[in-house]
Amino acid sequence: MDKTTAQRLVRETFKAAFDKKRYRDFINELCNGFDEGKAQNMGVPDAFTPHVKSCQRLGTFESADGELADVLIVHLTDSYKLERTRTALRDFVAHKLKRDESYKEAGLVAFVAPDSQSWRFSFVRMEYETKRDPKSGKIKPEERLTPARRYSYIVGVDEECHTAQSRFLALLQDTTGKPTLSQIEEAFSVESVTKEFFAQYAALFAATQEALDAIVKKDAVLRADFVAKKVSTVDFAKKLLGQIVFLYFIQKKGWLGVPKGGKWGDGPRNFLRKLADAAIREKKCLFNDVLEPLFYDTLATDRGHEAWCKEFGCRIPFLNGGLFEPLAGYDWAKTNISFSNSLFSNQERTPAGDTGSGILDVFDRYNFTVNESEPLEKEVAIDPEMLGKVFENLIEENRRKGLGAFYTPREVVHYMCQESLINYLDTTLNRQSSIIQRARSWKRVCPLRT
User: Fold this and answer.
1) Pairing relation of β-strands 308-309 and 377-379?
2) What's the average model confidence in pLDDT over 102-112?
3) Are 297 and 311 in contact, with CB atoms under 8 Å apart?
4) Mean pLDDT, to the nearest integer, of 263-278?
């Protein structure tokens, strides 16, 4: 399959409502065929009926190294289950992969919301260890304590598919044979997406600082003002990029552009893009006329419970904190920084073949998620951990050491929290048995005392 056809297949499958035929065709191309002779409707145990409406196996894929993976479609009872019942859904698939003692090594699963508009494409990887059956003497797989890991793409009508296009491209173009499960798992690598996004972010930061330096150099009044108030173009560019990327997480929650009387969460997931398109259409300066009022006169201003913003004609929350306060000494209302709109959005063709090299163009191509990843559950998307990564890596080395600002890997944080909770619960819940045990020990040592 050529590159253009592969990209179109991903786009038609993932940037759309779920369609069984399209999904089947995608899996068939991805795996270079799979056994559909084992297709069947699968029962849903009572323990999972609050979450799962139905489950269907389309077939089984045997990889190049002989490992087995089921191709499943899981229809959910409610749309919110996609986000809030991740552990239960992972356990449900693990239960199905151990069906009939076949012990499949993995599952390629479509988790579908009731309206089919949003869904997840997941790779569920099982972990087994072998054990000898004492009766038959045969070596059999045995489930470990943490039996399954799930990696998911957030897909559907309102989601972007740039990452999926790039990650599945090599597998779809290779028609020489079956892929291994390790190759498929690599296409779900969160770390690769994070590394790619950070490289793009760093390039955008450099471009923003360069554009600001050029404006300051050309404008004598602005240059004198920056020097007098000790405003650094480096810090200015960092703050601007940080503000925009943070708002991508906020708009993902539907908190920006909420209509009058609407609930938090009802706002469009592309609020910033809509603002940018309107500004460009009306020939406004996107930075001066739209972004700065949004940052400093809206998000940094407490407008009461309703949080109604007259200028933008919608509800926008008050975000307390320093991110949406201007840099010390910078008077945004009296200072004119005429960034070109092309810095934020343009029609430039990138080396990768994408259209648009501006800040919003690049950010729009990625999926953002407000769900923090954990060792057993990862979304192939940009998560809030990226903010810490950006903060640490864009601070100069000597300043970072002085601040003590270092990024802690999520696995370490998860382990520390887990061990702290275990120790707390053990100490709190087992206190009585510990007292009884000490009393018994004391009685054995001093039997004459009561």
Assistant:
1) unpaired
2) 88
3) yes
4) 94
